[in-house]
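Hey all, quick one. A colleague (J.T.) asked me to put the 5-O-phosphono-beta-D-ribofuranosylamine job into the tracker so the inputs and the structure tokens live in one place instead of scattered across chat threads. No bug as far as I know, just bookkeeping. Sequence used:
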Amino acid sequence: MRIVVLVSGTGSNLQAVIDAVKAGELGVDIAAVGADREGTYGVERSAAAGIPTFVVDFKAYQDRADWNQALTEAVAAYQPDVVVSSGFMRIVSPGFIDAFGGRYLNTHPALLPAFPGAHGVRDAMAYGVKVTGCTVHWADAGVDTGPIIAQEAVAIEDSDTEETLHERIKVVERKLLVSTLAALAADPAYSAA
Ligand code: GRF
């Protein structure tokens, strides 16, 4: 299974995928890593790992349609079976998702459909839920919507801040992303029981 991973930030989920591949625990080919802006640590660490990288800078395009087209072409050049949004903070067009047969995977730090959006951890805490978690799902053109593949719960402690909770979620999220990719490599129709 060939994957292209899209990042906007530090890419610690991506690093978990890179580490699992290098350790021989995950049989996928990371064809490339792309970002929506220059200077991300995610691209830097991929380049350091010898993975091809590209940037399609959102701010360099006059409108979203042009950026989507450029992103689609940049990703398509690597002919991925699955495109992974790993902390990629942009909504892509339906055309992008169609170009990859709907195989656009996203990770989110909350138990969807609860708390979608850029502040899933903060919003769960503000609501006062006792349990949150993370979700790996097939993304459609909405904000953190689309069929759920796998989820894991994480309890919220009284002493948590947004940062401590997000770090604990990310530990679980990294493992869930790696195990989900492994399951999809074995069975493209995989969905957790
Ligand atoms: C993850 O929790 C992801 O779900 C969210 O942002 C975080 C990205 O972390 N959208 P990283 O860039 O993989 O370290």
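Adding what we noticed when we looked at it: The mean pLDDT is 97. The chain has one domain: 2-185.
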